[in-house]
Amino acid sequence: MGCRLKEVLRPAIFYSFSFSRNRGWTTVNPSGLGITEYLAAVCAEYQIVDKIQLNTDVRQFQWLEDAEEWEVTLVHLAGGTGDLSERDRHAKADAEGERSVYLATEVRAKIVVSAVGGLIEPKVRPTGIDAFEGEFIHTAQWKPNVDLRGKDIIVIGTGCSAAQVVPELIKPPYNAKSVTQLMRSPRVIPEILSPEQLKKWAPYSPILMRNYARKHRPIVEEHYLRYMRAQVPEKYHEILTPDYRVGCKRRILDSGWLRSLQEPNIELIMSRLQSVQSKSVTLGPGRNYPSIMSRDDSEVPTDEVTLPADVIILATGYETNQWLLPLRVPGKGEKDLHDLWGERGGPQAYLGVAMDKFPNFFHDHWTQHDHRTF
Protein backbone atom coordinates (compact mmCIF):
# COMPACT_ATOMS: atom_id res chain seq x y z
CA MET A 1 0.00 0.00 0.00
CA GLY A 2 2.57 2.60 1.10
CA CYS A 3 1.80 5.93 -0.53
CA ARG A 4 -0.23 7.03 -3.50
CA LEU A 5 -0.75 10.45 -5.05
CA LYS A 6 -3.84 11.72 -3.25
CA GLU A 7 -4.40 14.82 -5.37
CA VAL A 8 -6.51 13.55 -8.23
CA LEU A 9 -6.68 17.13 -9.55
CA ARG A 10 -2.89 17.02 -9.76
CA PRO A 11 -2.18 13.74 -11.54
CA ALA A 12 1.22 12.09 -11.78
CA ILE A 13 2.33 14.08 -14.80
CA PHE A 14 2.36 17.23 -12.64
CA TYR A 15 4.62 15.53 -10.11
CA SER A 16 7.21 14.72 -12.76
CA PHE A 17 10.34 16.83 -13.14
CA SER A 18 10.06 19.35 -15.97
CA PHE A 19 13.47 18.25 -17.28
CA SER A 20 12.65 14.54 -17.16
CA ARG A 21 9.01 13.85 -17.91
CA ASN A 22 7.82 10.33 -17.33
CA ARG A 23 5.67 9.20 -20.23
CA GLY A 24 5.22 5.73 -18.79
CA TRP A 25 2.76 6.33 -15.94
CA THR A 26 0.25 3.48 -16.00
CA THR A 27 -2.33 5.22 -13.78
CA VAL A 28 -3.34 8.79 -12.96
CA ASN A 29 -2.41 8.26 -9.30
CA PRO A 30 0.50 5.79 -9.24
CA SER A 31 1.49 3.74 -6.21
CA GLY A 32 4.45 4.43 -3.97
CA LEU A 33 6.45 1.80 -5.85
CA GLY A 34 5.73 3.52 -9.17
CA ILE A 35 6.86 6.90 -7.80
CA THR A 36 10.02 5.34 -6.34
CA GLU A 37 10.89 3.65 -9.63
CA TYR A 38 10.50 6.95 -11.50
CA LEU A 39 12.73 8.84 -9.05
CA ALA A 40 15.37 6.09 -9.14
CA ALA A 41 15.39 6.20 -12.94
CA VAL A 42 15.90 9.99 -12.94
CA CYS A 43 18.79 9.70 -10.47
CA ALA A 44 20.43 7.04 -12.61
CA GLU A 45 19.94 9.05 -15.81
CA TYR A 46 21.62 12.13 -14.32
CA GLN A 47 24.30 10.08 -12.54
CA ILE A 48 23.67 11.41 -9.04
CA VAL A 49 23.03 8.14 -7.21
CA ASP A 50 26.44 8.35 -5.52
CA LYS A 51 25.63 11.90 -4.33
CA ILE A 52 22.62 10.75 -2.26
CA GLN A 53 22.74 9.25 1.23
CA LEU A 54 19.64 7.28 2.21
CA ASN A 55 18.60 6.27 5.74
CA THR A 56 20.27 9.43 6.99
CA ASP A 57 18.93 12.12 9.32
CA VAL A 58 20.31 15.65 9.46
CA ARG A 59 20.28 16.53 13.15
CA GLN A 60 21.95 19.95 13.21
CA PHE A 61 23.57 22.74 11.19
CA GLN A 62 26.26 24.58 13.22
CA TRP A 63 27.91 27.77 11.97
CA LEU A 64 31.67 27.79 12.73
CA GLU A 65 32.77 31.41 13.15
CA ASP A 66 36.53 30.90 12.72
CA ALA A 67 36.31 28.62 9.69
CA GLU A 68 33.32 30.48 8.21
CA GLU A 69 31.75 27.14 7.36
CA TRP A 70 28.74 25.09 8.33
CA GLU A 71 29.25 21.85 10.23
CA VAL A 72 26.42 19.43 9.52
CA THR A 73 25.70 16.52 11.87
CA LEU A 74 24.44 13.43 10.04
CA VAL A 75 23.02 10.37 11.78
CA HIS A 76 22.98 6.98 10.02
CA LEU A 77 21.23 3.81 11.13
CA ALA A 78 23.68 1.13 12.22
CA GLY A 79 23.74 -2.14 10.30
CA GLY A 80 20.94 -4.55 11.16
CA THR A 81 18.67 -1.89 12.67
CA GLY A 82 16.81 -0.83 9.54
CA ASP A 83 13.95 -3.27 10.09
CA LEU A 84 13.50 -2.46 13.78
CA SER A 85 10.54 -0.38 14.85
CA GLU A 86 11.23 3.04 16.35
CA ARG A 87 10.26 1.66 19.75
CA ASP A 88 12.71 -1.25 19.38
CA ARG A 89 15.47 1.12 18.28
CA HIS A 90 15.00 3.23 21.39
CA ALA A 91 15.00 0.10 23.55
CA LYS A 92 18.21 -1.14 21.92
CA ALA A 93 19.85 2.26 22.32
CA ASP A 94 18.89 2.40 26.01
CA ALA A 95 20.24 -1.10 26.62
CA GLU A 96 23.38 -1.05 24.47
CA GLY A 97 24.13 2.60 23.92
CA GLU A 98 23.32 5.08 21.14
CA ARG A 99 26.11 3.81 18.87
CA SER A 100 24.46 0.39 18.67
CA VAL A 101 21.69 2.02 16.64
CA TYR A 102 22.83 5.44 15.45
CA LEU A 103 26.16 6.43 13.93
CA ALA A 104 26.87 10.15 13.82
CA THR A 105 29.26 11.87 11.43
CA GLU A 106 30.05 15.51 10.67
CA VAL A 107 30.64 17.10 7.30
CA ARG A 108 31.52 20.70 6.46
CA ALA A 109 30.17 22.94 3.73
CA LYS A 110 30.50 26.56 2.63
CA ILE A 111 26.86 26.63 1.52
CA VAL A 112 23.83 24.81 2.94
CA VAL A 113 20.47 24.61 1.16
CA SER A 114 17.46 23.28 3.04
CA ALA A 115 14.73 21.66 0.95
CA VAL A 116 13.08 19.67 3.71
CA GLY A 117 9.57 20.90 2.96
CA GLY A 118 6.81 21.08 5.51
CA LEU A 119 5.06 17.70 5.42
CA ILE A 120 8.04 15.82 6.77
CA GLU A 121 7.73 15.16 10.51
CA PRO A 122 4.73 12.94 11.32
CA LYS A 123 2.61 13.40 14.42
CA VAL A 124 3.28 9.98 15.87
CA ARG A 125 2.69 9.80 19.60
CA PRO A 126 -0.83 10.21 20.96
CA THR A 127 -1.11 10.35 24.74
CA GLY A 128 -0.58 6.97 26.39
CA ILE A 129 0.79 5.18 23.33
CA ASP A 130 3.83 3.95 25.32
CA ALA A 131 1.53 1.59 27.25
CA PHE A 132 0.43 -0.13 24.04
CA GLU A 133 2.01 -3.56 23.49
CA GLY A 134 0.87 -3.97 19.89
CA GLU A 135 2.27 -2.34 16.80
CA PHE A 136 1.56 1.26 15.90
CA ILE A 137 2.27 2.73 12.48
CA HIS A 138 2.01 6.20 11.01
CA THR A 139 0.73 6.26 7.43
CA ALA A 140 3.79 8.33 6.46
CA GLN A 141 6.03 5.53 7.75
CA TRP A 142 4.14 2.56 6.36
CA LYS A 143 5.76 -0.85 6.75
CA PRO A 144 5.24 -2.82 3.53
CA ASN A 145 5.57 -6.21 5.25
CA VAL A 146 3.36 -5.53 8.26
CA ASP A 147 1.14 -8.50 9.19
CA LEU A 148 -2.45 -7.38 9.83
CA ARG A 149 -4.20 -10.70 9.17
CA GLY A 150 -6.99 -11.43 11.65
CA LYS A 151 -6.19 -8.40 13.80
CA ASP A 152 -8.33 -5.71 15.38
CA ILE A 153 -7.14 -2.34 14.07
CA ILE A 154 -7.77 1.17 15.37
CA VAL A 155 -7.27 3.95 12.81
CA ILE A 156 -6.93 7.46 14.23
CA GLY A 157 -7.79 10.16 11.70
CA THR A 158 -10.07 10.70 8.71
CA GLY A 159 -8.01 12.82 6.34
CA CYS A 160 -6.79 11.98 2.85
CA SER A 161 -4.34 9.30 4.02
CA ALA A 162 -6.93 7.53 6.16
CA ALA A 163 -9.41 7.54 3.29
CA GLN A 164 -6.89 5.62 1.20
CA VAL A 165 -5.78 3.22 3.92
CA VAL A 166 -9.06 2.10 5.51
CA PRO A 167 -10.67 0.42 2.46
CA GLU A 168 -7.52 -1.63 1.85
CA LEU A 169 -7.14 -3.02 5.36
CA ILE A 170 -9.88 -5.65 5.05
CA LYS A 171 -8.75 -6.76 1.59
CA PRO A 172 -5.93 -9.14 0.65
CA PRO A 173 -3.10 -9.17 1.50
CA TYR A 174 -3.94 -7.39 4.79
CA ASN A 175 -7.20 -9.19 5.71
CA ALA A 176 -7.79 -7.41 9.02
CA LYS A 177 -10.44 -8.84 11.34
CA SER A 178 -11.95 -5.43 12.18
CA VAL A 179 -11.23 -1.75 11.56
CA THR A 180 -12.47 0.99 13.91
CA GLN A 181 -11.84 4.50 12.63
CA LEU A 182 -11.85 7.47 15.00
CA MET A 183 -13.02 10.77 13.47
CA ARG A 184 -12.75 14.26 14.95
CA SER A 185 -14.82 16.17 12.39
CA PRO A 186 -16.45 15.39 9.02
CA ARG A 187 -15.04 16.41 5.65
CA VAL A 188 -16.59 17.38 2.36
CA ILE A 189 -16.25 14.27 0.19
CA PRO A 190 -16.87 14.63 -3.55
CA GLU A 191 -16.80 11.75 -5.96
CA ILE A 192 -13.46 11.21 -7.64
CA LEU A 193 -13.36 12.38 -11.26
CA SER A 194 -12.05 10.26 -14.10
CA PRO A 195 -9.28 11.56 -16.39
CA GLU A 196 -11.91 12.00 -19.11
CA GLN A 197 -14.06 14.17 -16.82
CA LEU A 198 -11.06 16.27 -15.80
CA LYS A 199 -10.18 16.86 -19.44
CA LYS A 200 -13.77 17.87 -20.20
CA TRP A 201 -14.02 20.48 -17.42
CA ALA A 202 -10.45 21.87 -17.46
CA PRO A 203 -11.08 24.56 -20.16
CA TYR A 204 -13.89 26.04 -18.06
CA SER A 205 -12.01 26.12 -14.74
CA PRO A 206 -11.33 29.92 -14.71
CA ILE A 207 -15.07 30.61 -14.99
CA LEU A 208 -16.10 27.81 -12.65
CA MET A 209 -13.78 29.07 -9.90
CA ARG A 210 -15.17 32.63 -9.83
CA ASN A 211 -18.74 33.88 -10.24
CA TYR A 212 -20.15 30.46 -11.08
CA ALA A 213 -18.65 29.00 -7.90
CA ARG A 214 -20.20 31.63 -5.64
CA LYS A 215 -23.62 31.29 -7.24
CA HIS A 216 -23.72 27.51 -7.29
CA ARG A 217 -22.01 26.73 -3.98
CA PRO A 218 -25.27 25.60 -2.29
CA ILE A 219 -26.05 23.35 -5.27
CA VAL A 220 -22.59 21.77 -5.10
CA GLU A 221 -22.89 21.26 -1.34
CA GLU A 222 -26.21 19.49 -1.74
CA HIS A 223 -24.76 17.34 -4.53
CA TYR A 224 -21.88 16.26 -2.26
CA LEU A 225 -24.28 15.41 0.56
CA ARG A 226 -26.48 13.33 -1.76
CA TYR A 227 -23.42 11.47 -2.96
CA MET A 228 -22.28 10.77 0.60
CA ARG A 229 -25.72 9.57 1.73
CA ALA A 230 -26.00 7.24 -1.24
CA GLN A 231 -22.70 5.57 -0.34
CA VAL A 232 -22.85 5.03 3.43
CA PRO A 233 -25.32 3.47 5.90
CA GLU A 234 -27.89 5.84 7.36
CA LYS A 235 -26.29 5.70 10.81
CA TYR A 236 -23.36 7.71 9.42
CA HIS A 237 -25.37 10.45 7.70
CA GLU A 238 -25.32 12.80 10.68
CA ILE A 239 -21.63 12.53 11.53
CA LEU A 240 -20.56 12.86 7.89
CA THR A 241 -22.55 16.07 7.36
CA PRO A 242 -20.17 19.05 7.83
CA ASP A 243 -21.25 22.15 9.74
CA TYR A 244 -19.18 24.44 7.49
CA ARG A 245 -19.34 25.57 3.85
CA VAL A 246 -17.59 23.65 1.11
CA GLY A 247 -14.04 24.88 0.64
CA CYS A 248 -13.44 25.82 4.28
CA LYS A 249 -11.50 22.61 4.84
CA ARG A 250 -9.62 20.39 2.46
CA ARG A 251 -11.85 17.98 0.60
CA ILE A 252 -11.33 14.24 0.48
CA LEU A 253 -11.65 12.94 -3.07
CA ASP A 254 -13.44 9.66 -2.53
CA SER A 255 -11.89 6.63 -4.18
CA GLY A 256 -13.68 3.98 -2.12
CA TRP A 257 -13.64 5.10 1.51
CA LEU A 258 -17.36 5.90 1.77
CA ARG A 259 -18.42 2.63 0.19
CA SER A 260 -16.08 0.72 2.52
CA LEU A 261 -18.16 1.96 5.48
CA GLN A 262 -20.86 -0.48 4.36
CA GLU A 263 -18.61 -3.38 5.35
CA PRO A 264 -19.66 -5.06 8.62
CA ASN A 265 -16.09 -5.11 9.96
CA ILE A 266 -15.42 -1.39 9.44
CA GLU A 267 -16.86 1.11 11.91
CA LEU A 268 -16.60 4.90 12.05
CA ILE A 269 -16.76 6.42 15.54
CA MET A 270 -16.95 10.01 16.81
CA SER A 271 -16.06 9.16 20.42
CA ARG A 272 -12.97 10.78 21.89
CA LEU A 273 -9.84 8.72 22.48
CA GLN A 274 -9.61 8.66 26.26
CA SER A 275 -6.71 6.29 26.93
CA VAL A 276 -4.55 3.53 25.47
CA GLN A 277 -3.98 0.27 27.32
CA SER A 278 -1.65 -2.62 26.52
CA LYS A 279 -4.15 -4.38 24.23
CA SER A 280 -7.09 -2.01 23.99
CA VAL A 281 -8.22 1.60 23.70
CA THR A 282 -10.88 3.42 25.71
CA LEU A 283 -13.17 5.89 23.96
CA GLY A 284 -15.46 8.47 25.55
CA PRO A 285 -17.37 9.55 27.43
CA GLY A 286 -18.33 12.38 25.13
CA ARG A 287 -17.90 12.78 21.39
CA ASN A 288 -15.98 14.97 18.98
CA TYR A 289 -18.91 15.81 16.69
CA PRO A 290 -21.60 17.02 16.73
CA SER A 291 -21.18 19.17 19.82
CA ILE A 292 -23.29 17.93 22.72
CA MET A 293 -24.07 21.56 23.55
CA SER A 294 -25.39 22.30 20.06
CA ARG A 295 -27.17 19.01 19.34
CA ASP A 296 -29.13 17.67 22.28
CA ASP A 297 -31.25 15.60 19.88
CA SER A 298 -28.28 13.84 18.29
CA GLU A 299 -28.25 10.04 18.33
CA VAL A 300 -24.45 9.85 18.10
CA PRO A 301 -23.20 7.77 21.08
CA THR A 302 -21.42 9.46 23.99
CA ASP A 303 -20.90 6.48 26.31
CA GLU A 304 -17.49 5.20 27.36
CA VAL A 305 -16.43 2.02 25.57
CA THR A 306 -13.27 -0.11 25.55
CA LEU A 307 -12.27 -1.79 22.28
CA PRO A 308 -9.67 -4.52 21.65
CA ALA A 309 -6.66 -3.35 19.65
CA ASP A 310 -3.83 -5.34 18.11
CA VAL A 311 -2.59 -2.52 15.86
CA ILE A 312 -2.99 1.27 15.96
CA ILE A 313 -2.61 3.11 12.66
CA LEU A 314 -2.03 6.84 12.96
CA ALA A 315 -3.35 8.93 10.07
CA THR A 316 -2.77 12.07 12.10
CA GLY A 317 -0.87 14.27 9.69
CA TYR A 318 2.35 16.18 10.22
CA GLU A 319 3.91 18.74 12.55
CA THR A 320 3.19 21.74 10.34
CA ASN A 321 3.35 24.48 12.97
CA GLN A 322 7.14 24.39 13.35
CA TRP A 323 9.57 24.99 10.51
CA LEU A 324 12.63 22.77 10.02
CA LEU A 325 11.38 20.43 12.76
CA PRO A 326 13.27 18.68 14.35
CA LEU A 327 16.54 20.31 13.18
CA ARG A 328 18.64 22.65 15.30
CA VAL A 329 20.31 25.48 13.39
CA PRO A 330 22.73 27.55 15.54
CA GLY A 331 24.05 30.46 13.46
CA LYS A 332 26.30 33.40 14.31
CA GLY A 333 26.82 33.77 18.04
CA GLU A 334 25.34 30.25 18.40
CA LYS A 335 21.86 31.75 18.21
CA ASP A 336 19.41 29.02 17.23
CA LEU A 337 17.17 29.82 14.27
CA HIS A 338 14.00 28.76 16.10
CA ASP A 339 14.86 30.95 19.10
CA LEU A 340 15.48 33.93 16.84
CA TRP A 341 12.16 33.42 15.09
CA GLY A 342 10.47 33.22 18.48
CA GLU A 343 11.96 36.58 19.48
CA ARG A 344 10.76 38.12 16.22
CA GLY A 345 7.22 36.83 16.48
CA GLY A 346 7.39 33.97 13.99
CA PRO A 347 9.23 32.55 10.97
CA GLN A 348 10.60 35.06 8.48
CA ALA A 349 13.19 35.23 5.71
CA TYR A 350 14.55 37.75 3.22
CA LEU A 351 12.81 37.10 -0.10
CA GLY A 352 11.70 33.82 1.45
CA VAL A 353 15.14 32.20 1.11
CA ALA A 354 17.71 33.71 3.51
CA MET A 355 18.13 34.95 7.10
CA ASP A 356 20.54 37.39 8.71
CA LYS A 357 22.97 35.76 11.18
CA PHE A 358 22.89 32.59 9.06
CA PRO A 359 25.47 33.13 6.27
CA ASN A 360 25.13 31.07 3.11
CA PHE A 361 22.15 29.20 4.55
CA PHE A 362 19.30 29.12 2.07
CA HIS A 363 15.89 27.50 2.03
CA ASP A 364 13.42 27.02 -0.77
CA HIS A 365 10.14 26.23 0.97
CA TRP A 366 9.09 27.74 4.24
CA THR A 367 8.32 30.96 6.11
CA GLN A 368 6.29 32.97 3.58
CA HIS A 369 4.75 29.92 1.94
CA ASP A 370 1.83 28.28 3.73
CA HIS A 371 1.85 24.63 2.68
CA ARG A 372 -0.41 23.38 5.43
CA THR A 373 -3.50 21.34 4.78
CA PHE A 374 -6.56 22.46 6.73
Describe the protein in words.
One of its GO terms (molecular function) is oxidoreductase activity. Belongs to the lysine N(6)-hydroxylase/L-ornithine N(5)-oxygenase family. Belongs to the FAD-binding monooxygenase family. Keywords: FAD, Flavoprotein, NADP, Oxidoreductase. The chain is 21% helix and 19% strand. It starts with 31 loop residues before the first helix and ends in an 11-residue tail after the last strand. The protein is globular. It folds into 2 domains: 12-120 and 321-363, FAD/NAD(P)-binding domain, CATH 3.50.50; 129-314, 3-Layer(bba) Sandwich (FAD/NAD(P)-binding domain). Residues 367-374 have low confidence and may be disordered. The longest helix has 21 residues, at 211-231. It is of the alpha/beta class. It has a 5-stranded parallel sheet, covered by helices on one side. A 3-stranded antiparallel sheet has the order 1-2-3, with no helix packed on it.
Q: For the record, what CATH class of the largest domain applies?
A: Alpha Beta
The CATH homologous superfamily of the largest domain corresponds to: FAD/NAD(P)-binding domain
By helix and strand content, what is the structural category?
alpha/beta
CATH hierarchy: architecture of the largest domain: 3-Layer(bba) Sandwich
Percentage beta strand: 15-25%
What strand line-up does the widest sheet have? 5-12-6-7-8
- Gross geometry: globular
**Tally of structural domains:** 2
Nearest-integer average pLDDT: 84
What percent of residues adopt helix (DSSP H or I)? 10-25%
Find the count of extended strands (DSSP E, 2+ residues).
13
Annotated CATH topology of the largest domain: FAD/NAD(P)-binding domain
Radius of gyration: 23 Å
Indicate the low-confidence ranges by residue numbers.
367-374
Terminus-to-terminus distance: 24 Å
Secondary structure tally, helices: 8
Major β-sheet, in short? Answer: 5 strands, parallel
What order do the SSEs take from the amino end to the carboxyl end, as H and E?
HEEHEEEEHEHHHHEEEEEHE
